[in-house]
Design goal:
Number of helices: 8
Helix content: 55-70%
Largest sheet: none
Shape: globular
Radius of gyration: 19 Å
Number of strands: 0
Order of helices and strands: HHHHHHHH
Number of domains: 1
Oligomer: single chain
């Protein structure tokens, strides 16, 4: 049976990156404790630019996204199971350790109430402006 146009098109597709290379570029960073110390510790300038939020868990999520952005220059969807170790590290660093059962992903209503002067879309924009790629 002769190849169909669909199978011919698939065979002609370029394969530029191996899976490990693609993961290194686009997947969420996987940190060890030394990496976490670098990624999630705010410099004095960062702490001034991004003041502590009243809700420790919300502030920890913000630091998590900021640290991931510093490492990969992109944002990642919040997913508690895959980010649990990093989130617990940040909470311990902030002096607010929490039990796993108490952790939650912030909903937009909570986030907007805690950060009224910074609309949701602008939080990422502020990070991008602070760390130009």
């Amino acid at each position: 049976m002769p190849p169909t146009p669909a199978t011919t098109t698939r065979k002609k597709r370029l394969h530029l990156l191996e899976e490990t290379d693609r993961a290194a570029l686009y997947d969420r960073p996987i940190f060890n404790d030394a990496d976490r110390l670098i990624a999630f510790t705010l410099s004095d300038a960062e702490a001034e630019r991004f003041p502590r939020l009243s809700d420790d868990l919300l502030h920890a999520w913000f630091i998590l996204q900021l640290g991931y952005f510093k490492a990969k220059q992109r944002f990642f969807p919040l997913a508690l199971p895959t980010m649990l170790d990093d989130l617990q590290y940040i909470l311990a660093y902030l002096g607010s350790p929490m039990e796993t059962a108490d952790l939650r992903i912030p909903n937009p209503h909570t986030t907007n109430r805690s950060m009224p002067n910074i609309p949701a879309a602008n939080r990422r924009v502020n990070i991008i402006k602070y760390f130009p790629v």
